[in-house]
Structures are given as C-alpha cells and as structure tokens.
Write a structure and sequence with these properties.
single chain; mainly alpha; 83% helix
C-alpha cells in the first residue's frame, strides 16, 4: 500500500512540474504575442528580398510562430528547474549541486544553437539558393515560406545543441554512459544525417553544412559523457574506500 502511495505521489509531483512548465510557456507566449511586431522587424531588418502574405491567416500564423519560439526560449530555464526538482529527491547531495549547473547550460546551448543556425548556417544556405536563381526569377517570398525556412535552419540546431548537456546530466544520474553512446553511434549518425537532409533544401552543400555540425555535436556529447562518467566512477570508488 505504501509503495502504491509512493507511486501516486510520484505521478502527482510529475503532474505538478508539467503544469508549472505549461503555464510558464503560456505566459511567455502571451508576452511574445504582444511584442511579435518588434521581433519581426528585428528579424527582417537586413533582409534584401520582399516578403508578402497571401491571406489574413498568414499574418496570424506569423504571430503564433514567433511568439511560440520566444516562449520556448524563455521557458527552457524554468522547465530545466522543474526537471531538476523532480529528480532531486533521488540524488545525493553532491549530485544535486552538480546537476543544478546544467540549468544555465541548457539555456545557453539552446540560444547558442539558434544563433549558430541563424547567423552562420541560414545565411550561407540562403545565399546559395538565391544564387541559383540569379537573372532567372524575381525574388519575392511569402512570409510564411520564409519563416518556415528560418525555423528549419535554426530550431534543429537549438534542440540538438542541448545534446551535450543532456548527455552529461543523464550520465551524472546514472541513466546513461559513454559506452552506450558509442554503441549506438552509427545509428545516431544515420538519424542526424536524415534530420539534416529533411530540414535542408535538396542540394549537397546544404546537407553537408548541416550534417557536419550535428555529427560533431554527437561526438562532443560522447566526450563530455565520458568525462562525467570517469568522475562519477572515481568518486564512487573513493566513497567505497572511505566507508571501508
């Protein structure tokens, strides 16, 4: 009976953390919706091509997509805190302090991935694609299509840049180790390359420019997981010797 109560309390705690995260997302999305016009002007201020909309629905779509991305960015630290609070009771004191450091890391890596995609990958791919149509077409894009392109070039990097911190966190709490990451390397490579091909235009240059950083991120995740794993094993060995 006590075990059943523990399971119920565990699920209740999970529900609480999910509700807090969802409410935080809704609040930030509301704020983002209010400032969508300012964010939009910042994103297109250096754009040399004209954006058009084909209907009122496109305008609303832009508001929702910009406010949603804004909300995701702002919600990540809160969501990370909720995850940490959920697993905290199962962690040792030194593990609690160590895993707490991953919260700012998750936010920094997410924003770093966005910036990498937006300022490095997207301009390169965008310029290459425009060069293919030089003297052939009048360059005028719908706002919806342009922002779909921006999302495809940025959000995958923002999410996958989190992989090193996630790998370190899961390794620190014993749910992952570098050996497992190495065993699934070829499958992970295949998935990452498929992701790169799906989010980029159908040309080799774009696929290559996106695939290489994703593969390097995975290798970095293995290296950092190995570092955390070695420290974890060494600490556990010292604890055994100390107790003996």
């Amino acid at each position: 009976m006590q075990e059943e109560m523990s399971v119920v309390e565990h699920l209740s705690e999970l529900r609480k953390r999910l509700i807090i995260t969802a409410l935080t997302f809704i609040v930030f999305m509301t704020v983002g919706f209010i400032y969508t016009k300012d964010i939009y002007k910042f994103l297109v201020k250096d754009l040399e091509v004209q954006l058009v909309v084909l209907g009122p629905g496109d305008i609303l779509w832009i508001y929702f997509i910009i406010s949603a991305v804004f909300a995701v960015i702002c919600t990540i630290p809160i969501a990370a805190v909720q995850v940490w609070l959920f697993v905290k009771p199962a962690l040792l004191p030194h593990e609690q302090k160590m895993t707490l450091l991953y919260i700012p890391a998750l936010f920094i890596l997410f924003v770093g991935g966005l910036c990498f995609g937006y300022f490095i990958i997207m301009p390169t791919v965008f310029s290459f694609l425009l060069s293919l149509g030089t003297d052939m077409f009048q360059e005028m894009f719908t706002t919806e299509k342009y922002f779909e392109f921006v999302m495809n070039m940025t959000m995958p990097f923002a999410v996958l840049f989190e992989l090193p911190a996630v790998a370190m966190f899961l390794t620190s709490i014993g749910l992952l180790n570098p050996i497992a990451l190495q065993k699934i390397r070829k499958y992970a490579y295949f998935v990452l390359i498929v992701i790169a091909v799906c989010i980029t235009p159908p040309d080799f240059l774009s696929d290559f420019l996106v695939s290489i950083p994703l593969l390097l991120i995975y290798e970095l995740s293995i290296a950092l997981s190995a570092y955390v794993y070695r420290r974890k094993v060494r600490r556990e060995a010292q604890d055994i010797v100390g107790n003996a």
